[in-house]
Design goal:
Elements: H1 4-7, H2 18-43, H3 54-84, H4 91-98, H5 101-112, E1 121-123, E2 131-133, H6 137-140
């Protein structure tokens, strides 16, 4: 990479002034505030969940890199189990084999990230450990 053109740029010929440093700090702070504002605006849209946001999509992408190969291996083990099974095969094993690992990983992660930010979850009455959003103040009055 050629950096010769930077040597003749007036901005880089001398150390930055206090005014330039302060302007840079204000510019960076404004950029951070704008990003936070966009994130909150995105979350406040009706029906938006964490998975629908840019950070949520980034999280899903990172997890999928390791989750998809794991699911692929799990599906291969389940195929062997189904072939060698004696008696009744568990229903969930067949369901795990219906989708390619990429789709299964994405759908699983989307359903895990369905909660809206700020919602508090409480165990359901069924006692099976699943979660549901806590009742809102408006709904409980």
């Amino acid at each position: 990479m050629v950096l010769a053109h930077f040597q003749h740029t007036p901005e880089f010929s001398e150390p930055p002034t206090i005014a330039q440093i302060e302007r840079q700090i204000r510019w960076e702070a404004a950029a951070v505030e704008a990003g936070i504002r966009r994130y909150h605006e995105e979350l406040n849209k009706p029906g938006t969940t964490i998975a629908d946001t840019s950070p949520g999509q980034r999280i899903i992408g990172e997890i999928m890199q390791e989750f998809v190969p794991w699911l692929s291996d799990a599906q291969e083990l389940l195929r062997v189990e189904v072939v060698n099974a004696r008696g009744r095969t568990r229903d969930w094993t067949l369901l795990m084999l219906l989708l390619p690992p990429e789709k299964l990983a994405y759908l699983t992660l989307r359903s895990v990230m369905i909660q809206r930010p700020g919602e508090r979850c409480v165990p359901r009455n069924r006692g099976n450990g699943t979660l549901r959003p806590a009742p809102t103040k408006a709904a409980s009055t």
